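Appendix B. Worked example

We walk through a single record from start to finish. Start with the input: the chain for Apple domain-containing protein, Stachybotrys chlorohalonatus, length 278.
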Amino acid sequence: MPAYPYSDLEVVPAKAIDSAPEVVPGNAPEVVLGSGAHEGIWYHKQDTPGDAAPAQRRICGVRARTFWIILGVAVTLVIAAIAGGVAAALTSRSSTSDGSVNQDISTSSSASLSPSSTESSASPPPSSEPPTTSTVSISTTTVVLPTTTLLRDCPSSNGTIYEADYDSEEEPLMFRKFCTAGFRHVRNGIDVINEPTQSLNDCINMCVDYNDRNSTAIAAGNNQTCNAVCWRSNEQLGNVNQIPGQCFGFTTLNNSAGFQVTDEVLCDSAGWINQRDL
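Next comes the structure step. The output line below is what the pipeline stores for this chain.
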């Protein structure tokens, strides 16, 4: 057999049988020996670096700090919304108040600029349409003549409307006045009225009364309608053809284009603008 420097088996000296267990530092519980009446073995568990930190306080499932931050933001938003609503309401109220004041001022100004009158004016050219709503002040002059006294409202009544009452249940008959002017006759100068009156208004009323009394004959075409009047004023007292206060009623052309007005200085005239069968 070849020679080897060592044998196959190495004998290790046995350890002493009474040797105590060796304590190795670690994570196991620490052994603490008791003394006195309470002798025994106590175990003390040492804290390890991997132990979990104590649980933090939570409110409604979230951390307390996060909860208070969210609550603060919510309260701030609510306060801002309330402040915005109050400001908008005050602004709207102020705007409404200003509008009411402006409207009152406008209404007051319009009322102060409109003079009182019993007749409405119409400055546009002669027309058969009803008048507008503007008003003017009309003055009447008393003309004393040797045999009569006349009441003349021209020239202040020029273009105004006189409403003659016909029936309380129907629209008044409306005549537009034209000072120192006349209308053309449609039937060769035939007058259905030729009588003296004290004023142009009385002359219009006489024309309306004629139409009422002859309504049946007029509707049948047997009589002509009185839709225009010429009342002789005092403008041309020296004229041989002047008959102060004389009222002439006749038929003139009345259509959508209006009346055919002439420069008849002897007359204060009026035309029936809402003509109809009575």
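Two observations about the output. The helical segments are 64-113, 200-213, 215-220. The radius of gyration is 60 Å.
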